[in-house]
Design brief:
Elements: E1 5-11, H1 18-26, E2 35-42, H2 48-57, E3 62-67, H3 72-80, E4 87-90, E5 96-97, H4 101-111, E6 119-128, E7 134-135, E8 149-152, E9 167-169, H5 170-175, H6 189-198, E10 205-218, H7 225-228, H8 238-255, H9 260-277, H10 289-303, H11 308-313, H12 321-331, E11 339-344, E12 353-359, E13 366-370, E14 373-375, E15 378-387, E16 390-400, E17 406-410, E18 413-414, E19 417-419, E20 450-453, E21 456-459, H13 460-467, H14 472-488, H15 492-527, H16 530-536, E22 539-543, H17 552-563, E23 569-573, H18 580-586, E24 590-592, H19 596-603, E25 605-610, H20 615-618, E26 632-635, H21 646-649, E27 656-659, H22 662-669, E28 682-684, H23 688-699, E29 706-709, H24 715-722, H25 727-736, H26 738-747, H27 750-758, E30 762-766, E31 784-787, H28 789-792, H29 794-799, E32 801-806, H30 811-817, E33 822-825, H31 829-836, H32 846-849, E34 854-855, H33 858-869, H34 874-887, H35 895-905
């Protein structure tokens, strides 16, 4: 019997996963004679090939091809040359198939009585590699909402397919000499083939096989080809040129036009680039120079073939309003003037409204008129939307606070005011095209299928009879347990134990939620009582972090406590904090973080403020249970914002943000700002902790005696260290890293030791908490003292510094503010600003704006330290002193005073 379906599996270094895939093949409820398996070992260097070979040797309908490593496309191409099935599909060797997968496909083929389907697609569920549980979260899941059907891509162009789970006609591939382009890697080789395949007909018909469930494994270690591909240069060149662009050109040559479905395929994939760019720790941040320029040129060429209407209504892979406007304005040049005027919603009752002007080139001149009279709008602020390091759109937002007829002129021309459309309708699903028979029972191939239950083979009819004895819920639970067992290669006992534990936890959590809701209602009522209101009315609630103080929050509260008794201020802190006893002894009005008292306090607060802006400090009580919209949140900051943190800050609801330097303030609310904060929300007051620093300098009785070293940390190194539990192994990882080698070279420098002795200075090192426990295992010389700020006090150490040496730490601003020389030891700027850490280059350029010399090597840093200590080199240091003076508008002890006044003005 000739196989109906050929299954292609490209295998490369998947020994950890491939056995589960093979087991899912074994457990298929289909007559295996109808299936052909073709494996290609693409030069695996692990045991993948051996595992597959053993499986193939036991199956007469399987074969294995071995080749040198050439990529997934090349492996699949080799398989296509030898397949013999009428249809062909691809399965990745780390994924899992539902036991009815092939049965559902073959059943659909039988039900397609007129054989009109050009391609079949199956349902992809995302398999959590850590838990073995699957979730229906794939962006294209909407296609299956109406069950199995036949869809015309002309009538429903959003019903697209990109991945390898498609099922294609073998004769169509061979008739048109279609195969994989082996040059396309690391992604899109599948979609490139599918696009050209579908273009062989004017009206491609897709069969939606809703019963065929494909479990796509999302690897916990982020090691899959898709997950690691962002660091591959080819994803920014080859994939665009030979993948997206060539697919669009090929379709156009075949059909004379680029149909909407083909545009959607490419746009779907492109949106992931833009989404990745919006992340603070983005995997696309590293591209620059010629690679970035070429990438943008290719993007322009690709967008030339994507219609404006396609972008406007695209919703298959949802994107933000501003992202869509960038595509329309920057890449499509949709607007003749290069500008748009947008009104946000309908006029308010008082006639006021929010407007914005979007510009995609030079900043335009904007004039606003109400009833023919020119006015100055309120709340005027700018946000620059940048992607891939290029400013692409400027959004100028302003409010018109007067009723009347509003006209906006842009560069002298009256703009057409349009209403902002932020919601795009979900894709419309059509009914089946027709020709799909009801589910067949008597004559379909599935009726002759064999079901494997343990060691016993039963007919499908017998299996169906048995399955009818169980409820749907039991069947659902059983399939979930089976999947988890397969995905984790675990025993039934352990899977059942975990499931029981989850069920118990879920029940417990539900009970807790009900209790929490009941308590919340009681606490809200209590918060409105006269006694509580009189105590906490209009309170200022201040904290740094739940378990730590000693930052801007603590210093600001101390000022309010001693100087502003009329302000009803409280300090929030976990009672387990090592700072609790100290602050309690000092007389701080402490409220325990997470306590009932904190709930009553926060529900009556006027301001919340913290030196951090993570959820646990912005919302110290459960925001699902308690509404904190009656108070404003002020971000006191932990350090001066010198890098671009807009992707982290913009989604947060900040009502104010403290700034310390002119450049920082301008970067947040200036005309070239990527931030969405308004001009009145950036408070250029200086940091409260600077007050105490200046006081400590004035109180210092002896000269500064420390050469203080304090490096920042590295994201990639943290991940590597967390993956190891052995201290010795961690030490080896640290010592062999670029970070460890460079800093240990500097600390072990004989020149540094002699320099410290010559100027009678001690060498002090502050270790980041992430590797503090490794200090005993590191080669740090005896003359270097390891300093613990939590014991000695960070500010006490800083005022002892004769020179402060760091790489990228914002503490350099604290040092500069009190006149301490700074040296930057930067041996890896490309890594730090190229996705290796959560840094993105902002306004601050270390060479142009830094408060000291930038040194790429340890010996350079030692030389710079020497010059900082040498009074004869004072003329060389003046440039840095001038930069400090220009950066800080305030270098005094009135920072807290200015901040309190600024908050009151809010």
């Amino acid at each position: 019997m000739a196989p109906v379906l050929s299954v292609v599996v490209a295998v490369y270094n998947v020994e950890k996963y491939v056995s589960a895939t093979l087991k899912s093949f074994d457990q298929q409820s289909v007559d295996q004679e109808l299936i052909e398996y073709v494996f290609v070992d693409d030069g695996s260097s692990d045991n993948s090939g051996e595992i597959v070979q053993k499986w193939v040797s036991r199956h007469s309908n399987a074969r294995l091809i071995v080749q040198e490593n050439a990529g997934a496309g090349a492996a699949r191409k080799a398989a296509l040359e030898v397949i013999s099935g009428s249809w062909v599909t691809v399965v990745d060797p780390d994924d899992i198939l539902d036991s009815e997968y092939f049965t559902s496909i073959l059943d659909f083929i039988d039900r397609d009585i007129d054989s009109v389907a050009d391609m079949l697609v199956t349902k992809v569920l995302v398999l959590n590699d850590a838990t073995g549980r699957a979730f229906d979260t794939h962006p294209l899941r909407y296609r299956f909402n109406k069950g199995s059907r036949l869809v015309s891509l002309i009538e429903e162009p959003t019903c697209i397919q990109l991945g390898a789970t498609a099922v294609l006609r073998t004769d169509r591939l061979r008739k048109h000499s279609l195969t994989y382009d082996t040059r396309i890697e690391p992604t899109f080789e599948d979609a490139h083939l599918l696009g050209r395949y579908l273009a062989t007909t004017d009206d491609p018909i897709v069969g939606i096989v809703s019963g065929a469930k494909y479990y796509y494994r999302k690897r916990f270690d982020q090691s899959s080809l898709v997950q690691t591909s962002w660091s591959d240069k080819s994803r920014y060149s080859t994939v665009l040129e030979l993948g997206y662009l060539d697919m669009l050109n090929s379709v156009k040559r075949e059909l004379g036009v680029v149909p909407e479905w083909a545009q959607n395929v490419v746009l779907y994939d492109l949106v992931w680039y833009f989404k990745e760019e919006t992340q603070q720790h983005s995997k696309t941040a590293w591209i620059s120079g010629a690679l970035r320029d070429g990438f943008l040129e290719l993007l322009m060429s690709i967008f030339d073939q994507i219609d404006v209407e396609t972008i406007e209504k695209f919703s298959v892979n949802p994107m933000w309003w501003s992202m869509r406007q960038v595509m329309l304005g920057f890449f499509k040049r949709t607007y003749a003037t290069g500008n748009r005027v947008v009104q946000w919603g309908a006029d308010r009752k008082d006639g006021s409204n929010q407007y914005c002007v979007l510009s995609f080139g030079a900043e335009p001149d904007v004039e606003v008129f109400v009833d023919g009279v020119k006015i100055e709008p309120t709340s005027d602020n700018y946000t620059v939307h940048s992607f891939f390091g290029v400013p692409m759109m400027v959004e100028r937002n302003f409010r018109v606070g007067l009723p009347g007829q509003v006209n906006v002129f842009v560069d002298g021309q009256q703009g057409v005011i349009e209403r902002a459309v932020t919601k795009v309708d979900a894709p419309k699903q059509n009914s089946s095209r027709g020709g799909l028979a009801p589910k067949l029972e008597e004559y379909s191939r599935t009726d002759r299928a064999l079901h494997f239950i343990g060691e016993r083979k039963l007919s499908s009819r017998s299996t169906l009879d048995k399955l009818q004895q169980f409820s749907k819920k039991a069947s659902y639970i059983n399939s979930k347990l089976h999947l988890e067992k397969l995905a984790l290669s675990d025993t039934s006992g352990r899977v059942l134990a975990r499931t029981a534990s989850r069920v118990l936890t879920k029940a417990t959590n539900k009970t807790r939620e009900q209790r929490a809701l009941s308590k919340a209602a009681s606490m809200v009522a209590q918060a409105k009582s006269v006694s509580v209101r009189s105590k906490y009315r209009d309170a200022w609630v201040i904290l740094d972090r739940p378990l730590r103080a000693d930052d801007n929050g603590e210093h600001f509260y101390r000022y309010l406590k001693g100087n502003r008794p009329e302000i009803n201020s409280y300090f929030l802190l976990d009672r387990k904090s090592p700072d609790w006893e100290r602050l309690e002894h000092e007389g701080f009005r402490l409220v325990e973080y997470g306590s009932d008292e904190s709930i009553l306090l926060l529900l009556n607060a006027k301001f919340r403020m913290s030196s951090d802006a993570i959820a646990e400090v912005m919302y110290p009580i459960n925001r699902k249970l308690y509404n904190l919209s009656g108070s404003k949140f002020i971000f006191l900051q932990h350090g001066v914002t010198k890098d671009d943190l807009s992707r982290w800050i913009n989604p947060k609801r900040l009502d104010g943000m403290v700034c310390a330097t002119v450049g920082e303030h301008s970067s947040i609310v200036g005309r070239n700002s990527p931030y969405t904060l308004k001009s009145n929300q950036a408070l250029l007051t200086g940091f409260p902790r600077f007050d105490r620093l200046h006081e400590l300098v004035e109180e210092r009785k002896s000269p500064a005696d420390l050469l203080l070293f304090m490096p920042t940390w590295r994201q990639y190194l943290r991940d590597e260290l967390e993956a190891s539990s052995d201290p010795t192994a961690k030490s080896s990882i640290f010592n062999l890293s670029e970070f460890g080698q460079n800093w240990l070279e500097l600390l072990n420098s004989q020149e540094l030791k002699e320099l410290a002795a010559r100027y009678n200075k001690k060498v002090g090192f502050i270790a980041h908490p992430a590797f503090a426990d490794l200090i005993a295992f590191l080669d740090i010389p005896n003359h270097v003292e390891i300093l613990d700020p939590s014991v000695l006090g960070f500010q006490n150490l800083l005022v002892r510094a004769a020179v402060f040496v760091t790489d990228y730490s914002s503490v350099a601003f604290d040092a500069a503010n009190i006149g301490t020389p700074v040296v930057y030891f930067q041996f890896d700027p490309e890594t730090m600003f190229g996705g290796g850490h959560n840094f993105r280059r902002g306004y601050f350029d270390y060479e142009r704006d830094g408060f000291g010399p930038v040194c790429p090597a340890a010996i350079d840093a030692v030389t710079a330290i020497g010059k900082s200590l040498d009074s004869n080199a004072d003329s060389e240091m003046r440039i840095y002193q001038r930069r400090v003076a220009e950066a800080f508008p305030h270098a005094d002890t009135k920072n807290s005073e200015r901040l309190a006044d600024a908050i009151l003005r809010l």
